[in-house]
Design goal:
Helices cover 14% and strands 35% of the residues. It has 452 residues and is mainly beta. It has three domains: 170 residues, Thiol:disulfide interchange protein DsbD, N-terminal domain (Immunoglobulin-like), CATH 2.60.40; 83 residues, no CATH class; 165 residues, 3-Layer(aba) Sandwich (Glutaredoxin), CATH 3.40.30.
Length: 452
């Protein structure tokens, strides 16, 4: 029986570096830990006897370096975890967020850039005594790559106290954001079928509505040619995807039905927008009670900044005054800057008009307007995922940038000076009449707190 999982994602960067063979002098001689910071963290601040404790291995990678997914693709190696648990503790399976396709033809790998959290549940025994401490340890073996690959290993430890109730840890938001990037079962109403035609597999997915730009990620190796184009055709209420079979699969005469678990990564939903397409029209009321429309700013560049004043990633850019500096710089040059708040009532970051105006004054922020979107209509229209999530629309209404504010997906203000600011880069290049060199990137931050 076909095991089906669907991963939904919006605005994914589809370019990176694969692990190839042309070494940079000196780099291969450096320890892997020079290029990646690895840490064992907990979602809970204490161990509750008999209750699952969610732990995670957080990889923070330097720019242009990556590590690997459970199926690394044409090269590479997935991280391996060797648990060292106290007596009676049991670890569950590692949960793998969806990867990026790291393509350098004729090869393609699957992995992660910047930051990834590999999390797993650990069940402690029910007989633990309140107040005692327990040390959890693990050895992680991993591979990081740029134009060379370096093996690394690190011994990690975490000590937690046993309590009857566990407070949330500071890492809770990262765990929540990672869960949003895990596979979920396909809805029962979806119809998925796979056929074999010569050197191709033909996958039909019918969800009842159009699906734009799907990508196929095989959970097992040697199923498809990873670097081959995946050609998609629209079907009524769905899509057909043509996948080139792996040469190894053709030789062995294996069967997709018996050897492959299907995972789909839908790069943009039916409601999202893609760079190069017309940006969706919207209408929203700002914090001063004025109605703002995208079409009302035709002839000018427009920046959309998704915002949550309680999010540490937002705080990074506001407490450092980086966001205010960008707002001042670009609005003084005639760019329209909309700060958009899509947090629902009762959710982190929700504000009334008065609260938002007080916040803007307190922070010295100067967007053109702050749009209040408590129902999430504008956010869902643009498939905004994180705070911040940045979009740039050109004077004729075409989306020219979708992604992160910069290249340093951390909460550390010290990273701002060395980061590449993608928003400024897109505006500078577009105003100069040049193509935007980085039109998409992976947005980072807290998940947008939409109404459920």
């Amino acid at each position: 029986m076909l095991n089906r999982s669907i991963i939904w994602s919006l605005g994914i960067l589809l370019a990176s570096f694969a692990c190839l063979v042309s070494p940079t002098p000196g780099v291969a001689d450096q320890p892997a830990e020079k290029y990646v910071k690895l840490e064992l963290i907990s979602e809970q601040g204490a161990i509750v006897p008999g209750k699952d404790l969610w732990l995670g291995f957080r990889f923070d990678l330097q720019d242009e370096w990556h590590t690997y997914w459970s199926n690394p693709g044409d090269s590479g190696e997935a991280p391996r975890i060797e648990w060292q648990l106290p007596a009676g503790f049991q670890a569950g399976a590692i949960q793998w967020p969806y990867p990026e396709r790291l393509s350098t033809p004729p090869f393609a790998d699957y992995g992660y850039e910047h930051q990834v959290l590999l999390m797993a549940p650990v069940r402690p025994p029910a007989q633990l005594k309140d107040g005692e401490t327990q040390k959890i340890a693990a050895r992680v073996r991993y591979l990081v790559c740029r134009d060379v690959c370096i093996h690394g290993q690190k011994q990690l430890e975490l000590t937690l106290r046993v309590k009857s109730a566990a407070p949330a840890s500071p890492a809770g938001e990262l765990f929540r954001a990672t869960r949003a990037r895990l596979p979920v079962p396909a809805p029962p109403s979806w119809k998925i079928s796979v056929g074999s035609m010569g050197d191709e597999f033909v996958l039909d997915l019918k969800s009842g509505k159009p699906i734009k730009a799907p990508q196929f990620f095989p959970l097992r190796a040697e199923q498809i040619e990873n670097a081959a184009p995946q050609v998609a055709f629209a079907l009524p209420g769905g899509v057909r995807l043509h996948l080139k079979k792996s040469k190894h699969l053709l030789i062995m005469k294996w069967n997709l039905w018996s050897s492959l678990v299907i995972t789909l990564l839908l790069v943009s939903s039916a409601y999202g927008v893609r760079v190069g397409e017309s940006a969706p029209e919207f209408q929203a009321t700002d914090s001063n009670g004025q109605v703002q429309k995208l079409s009302g700013n035709r002839g000018r560049f427009v920046v959309l900044e998704w915002h949550n004043n309680g999010c540490p990633y937002t705080e990074k850019h506001y407490e450092s005054r980086n966001m205010q500096r960008l707002q001042n710089e670009w609005t003084s040059k005639g760019v329209v800057w909309f700060t958009v708040i899509s947090s629902a009532p009762g959710q982190q970051g929700y504000v009334t008009a008065q609260q938002e105006n007080e916040y803007l004054k307190q922070m010295g922020a100067s967007p053109t307007a702050a749009l209040l979107d408590p129902q999430g209509d504008v956010g869902r229209l643009y498939s905004a995922k994180t705070t911040p999530h940045m979009f740039v629309v050109n004077p004729v209404g075409v989306l020219i940038y979708d992604g992160a504010i910069d290249s340093k997906p951390t909460t550390d203000q010290a990273d701002i000076p060395s980061a590449k600011n993608y928003v400024s880069q897109a505006l500078e290049e577009a105003i100069a009449g040049k193509p935007v060199s980085t039109p998409t990137s992976r947005p980072y931050g807290c998940s947008v707190k939409y109404a459920h």
